[in-house]
Write a structure and sequence with these properties.
The complex is a heterodimer. In chain A, the strands form 7 sheets. Chain A has a 6-stranded mixed β-sheet with strand order 7-3-2-11-19-18, covered by helices on one side. In chain A, strands 1-10-9-8 form a 4-stranded mixed β-sheet. In chain A, helix 1 (about 25-35) packs parallel to helix 4. Chain A is built from 16 helices and 24 strands. By secondary structure, chain A is of the alpha/beta class. Chain B is α+β, with helices and mostly antiparallel strands. In chain B, strand 3 and strand 4 (about 80-85) form a beta hairpin. In chain B, helix 6 packs across helix 9 (about 230-245). Classes of the chains: A alpha/beta, B alpha+beta. Chains A and B meet through helix 3, helix 4 and helix 10 of A and helix 4 of B.
């Protein structure tokens, strides 16, 4: 049965696995490795060959207190930094779990063969990153980010692929997941997916479905994200009636290459690089006198945006900032930062060992996502009470466990991937041993999950997905960027509401079943639109400034009202609040204080 | 590649692109499209493909990171394999003409998309993962900076397939000759001070085809978008095999 037909739920062929993982990036392949090694029949469904996933673009490293650079380093200091970085809406049970389990997960990667850079003692090389400190902020800058030159994501992703090959994981490579299948109890019992090459479509049945679909930076017109980052897991989850949490929190990375949007790592500043304005001034000394260029990303991005707004930007249009590395000498630049040397030459035409790189804050990371507990179990929280969604898990950027809160620290995303991909795998393995009993999906349940595809195949008129996408991206870029304002956001929300009808009725001209990228892009654009609308509505609702969410009309943090997660459901477009976890198990909770760097 | 053409002169370029959809076409054909490109900045070949897709939404090609690190968009650009996303138009253009074909030597699925199965099958034959004997330490294994440096120029491979599909030895024997990408990976693990399976790895390569079909043509080196040197890796394995015989 092929993807270009109108398909009835009663006819669709079935493939069955013990566990399925949707997404072949770092989180997905860490989860699949855990399951495959435990002997469960596991499949990874990935719309691209796994090593093409966006984890591959991560550069600077994986932050973890492995005590290589500083033998006295302590995971509790890492926890303190992460809680502070999150502007206090990161869940402290989850942050504690990540920081404490982290070293185990990082050493496992080394055992699998990850080619980390090394110190003279032969240990893993660690570099300083933003927002890092020793002794709970009192001991100065820490160097806690474990690195493989500036190709840590590439090294991590390839290593996990290699380990999965060794473990015998089933890969459904270049398969696209359309929608989750829910049974009569609203438990998730698999997904509808098709093989992109042939168009063969299946109901892939499983008692454990892990969403590891990554981020959705393509809701903005300027982003460091890969073209495939379309928020497929968020789209599927919202359509299934489950919520997203803190989705208004988008990280703008200080150093995207001006014009191209490609990332240059924070590790540049970790190695001693710094930002200058048109006067050559190292302006971060004014905004963050202690941490300077290694303040956390939200702080640096805002400072840069202010420099540009106040007319101190570089270039003819005074629209960017420069990142200086030439004073480090070609040895450091070429040895420690070979990847960004290559990227700077290709996309900015400069050799960073000689000339500064033109950079600008660029959309980089989705702190929000599908709410989960530390086992990756998805939580639905209508009417304020947490309820586990049976059969559904999420890990990595698509999930909001929440370790990043309002602002992620550099190097914490790769740690998040491996720690929580692993944790979800461990939990699923255990629960499978105890036995999982979920009612089978009926043909009506399958019809519901097929409706989006059928509608697209039936389309004879309407808008092209590319036009809708472009308008949406411009809207998000203009109205939901580094600085936000109520009146502009309301206009943005109206524009999205007007496009709603277009997105529901996309016209797919090319109906071919063979490697049809137009069909994929239409399905992806619908997912992106769900993320954009959730972002817009929730951003307007959070009436304060916290972490990456900076409002001109509400410039202060409001702990009385908003020391909370936001929770958004797409069916009624409602925004609710959910308590932040202040109950770590091994340490006292860190209480909110004024956040300065 | 031809010398850079002054950008101010470029307005409309001729794109000739390989088209084939097995559900519609009896045989492949080259489609000509006029593409307007801006004169004030250099585009990448991938940008040209995106512009072409606006005219022809059914044009299919793989792409993801658009920065030369994921390996999706390997293709044949004016006769030479490369990644569309990091190949500047100014370097690729020949007399304002750009010809794009799928990477040679592999079956075409549709348009610029090839079936990479044979490429990955060959990769899996070299057991591209660390093999160790004995227990694992509590922390990381130690490795000196010098030992780690042996992996530079090897671990960076992005599996795009540009090298293997430009190799005549692979074209003739795609099922028996492993090809430059797989052999580079083989050497990446042999060269790793942490790997304990050198002998098994070498044993598996000691036949007439797997490795010895490399004739040093060096197409792999000239096309690798990451500047890696598979020919050198192959000769390192060869030396290792020879020195073992003594």
């Amino acid at each position: 049965m092929k993807v270009d037909e109108i398909i009835n739920g009663s006819d669709i062929p079935v493939k069955e696995f013990d566990g399925i993982i949707i997404g072949g990036g770092g989180a997905g392949m860490r989860a699949s490795l855990q399951l495959a090694e435990s002997g469960l029949n596991t499949a990874v469904i990935s719309k691209v060959f796994p090593t093409r996933s966006h984890t591959v673009s991560a550069q600077g490293g994986i932050t973890c207190a492995i005590a290589s650079d500083d033998p006295d380093d302590d995971w509790r200091w890492h926890m303190f930094d992460t809680v502070k970085g999150s502007d206090y809406i990161g869940d402290q049970d989850a942050i504690e779990y990540m920081c404490a389990e982290g070293p185990k997960a990082v050493f496992e990667l080394e055992h699998m063969g990850l080619p980390f850079s090394r110190t003279e003692e032969g240990r893993i090389y660690q570099r300083p990153f933003g927002g890092q400190s020793k002794d709970y902020g009192k001991g100065g800058q820490a160097a806690r980010t474990c690195a493989a030159a500036d190709r840590t994501g590439h090294s991590l992703l390839h290593t996990l692929y290699q380990a999965n090959l060794k473990a015998g994981t089933n890969f459904l490579n270049e398969w696209f997941a359309i929608d989750l299948v829910l049974n009569v109890d609203n438990a998730v019992v698999g997904v509808i997916a098709f093989e992109i090459e042939t168009g063969e479509i299946f109901y892939i049945k499983s008692k454990a479905t892990v969403l590891a679909t990554g981020g959705a930076g393509r809701i903005y017109s300027s982003t460091t994200n890969a073209l495939i980052n379309s928020g497929d897991g968020i789209g599927m989850s919202l359509r299934a009636g489950f919520p997203v949490q803190d989705i208004e929190m988008w990280q703008f990375h200080p150093t995207g290459i001006h014009g191209a949007g490609t990332l240059v790592t924070e590790g540049c500043r970790g190695e001693g690089g710094y930002l200058i304005n048109k006067d050559g001034e190292r302006f971060m000394e004014r905004y963050a006198p202690n941490a300077k260029d290694l303040a956390s990303r939200d702080v640096v991005a805002r400072s840069m945006a202010l420099e540009i707004l106040e007319g101190r930007g570089c270039g003819n249009d005074a629209d960017h900032i420069k990142l200086r590395l030439d004073h480090l000498g070609p040895e450091v630049v070429h040895k420690r930062l070979p990847g960004i040397t290559e990227l700077s030459k290709t996309f900015a035409g400069v050799d960073p060992a000689i000339e500064p790189i033109p950079v600008v804050p660029t959309c980089h990371y989705m702190m929000g996502g599908i709410p989960t507990n530390v086992h990756g179990q998805v939580i639905s929280s209508k009417s304020g009470e947490d309820k586990i969604v049976e059969g559904l898990y999420a890990a990595g950027e698509v999930a909001c466990v929440s370790v990043h809160g309002g602002n992620r620290l550099g190097g914490n995303s790769l740690l998040d991937l491996v720690v929580f991909g692993r944790a979800a795998g461990i939990f699923i393995e255990d629960s499978m041993k105890q036995g999982v009993d979920l009612k089978p999906a009926s043909s009506v349940d399958l019809d519901r999950a097929l409706s989006r595809l059928n509608k697209l195949n039936e389309s004879t008129e309407g808008h092209q997905s590319t036009e809708i996408k472009k308008a949406m991206q411009d809207n998000m870029q203009k109205n939901f960027g580094v600085f936000r304002r109520g009146d502009l956001m309301e206009k943005g929300i109206e524009d999205l509401a007007e496009a709603r009808n277009q997105i529901e009725n996309i016209h797919l001209q090319d109906k071919s079943a063979t490697f049809n990228t137009a069909r994929i892009e239409a399905l992806e654009t619908q997912n992106l639109f769900e993320v954009a609308e959730a972002t817009a509505i929730t951003a307007n609702e959070r009436k304060e400034s916290r972490g990456a969410h900076a409002r001109d009309d509400y410039p202060d943090r409001d702990d009385d009202e908003w020391l909370k997660h936001s929770i958004y459901f797409s069916d009624d477009k409602s925004v609710g609040k959910r308590d932040v976890n202040f109950r770590p198990k091994q340490v006292q909770a860190f209480q909110p204080i004024e956040r300065t760097y | 590649m031809s010398a850079a053409i002054p950008l101010e002169e470029i307005k409309v370029i001729k794109l000739s692109v390989y088209r084939f959809d097995p559900t519609l076409d009896n045989k492949p054909y080259m489609q000509s499209l006029d593409i307007e490109v801006p004169t004030n900045k250099d585009l990448m070949v991938l940008d040209v493909l995106h512009l072409a897709k606006e005219q022809e939404p059914s044009l299919s090609f793989r792409r993801s990171c658009r920065e030369g690190v994921c390996g999706s968009d390997g293709m044949n650009i004016n006769g030479k394999n490369g990644l569309a996303c990091v190949t500047p138009l100014s370097e690729a253009l020949k007399r304002d003409k750009l010809t794009l074909r799928p990477m040679p030597g592999l079956p075409v699925i549709r348009d610029l998309i090839v079936d990479m199965k044979q490429f990955f099958d060959q990769l899996e034959k070299v057991q591209p993962y660390l093999i160790t004997k004995g227990g694992v330490p509590e922390k990381e294994r130690t490795q000196s900076p010098e030992e780690r440096e042996e992996l530079d120029g090897l671990y960076e491979c992005i599996l795009c397939g540009c090298c293997t599909t430009s190799c005549p030895s692979f074209w003739w024997n795609p099922d028996k000759f492993l090809g430059p990408a797989a052999l580079l990976q083989s050497w990446r693990f042999i060269a790793d001070s942490r790997d304990d399976a050198t002998d098994e790895r070498l044993d598996a390569l000691e036949d007439a085809f797997s490795l010895y079909r490399c004739h040093g043509i060096m197409n792999c080196v000239s096309v690798c978008p990451k500047g890696l040197n598979p020919t050198e890796a192959i000769s390192n394995i060869r030396n290792k095999l020879l020195s073992r015989k003594k």
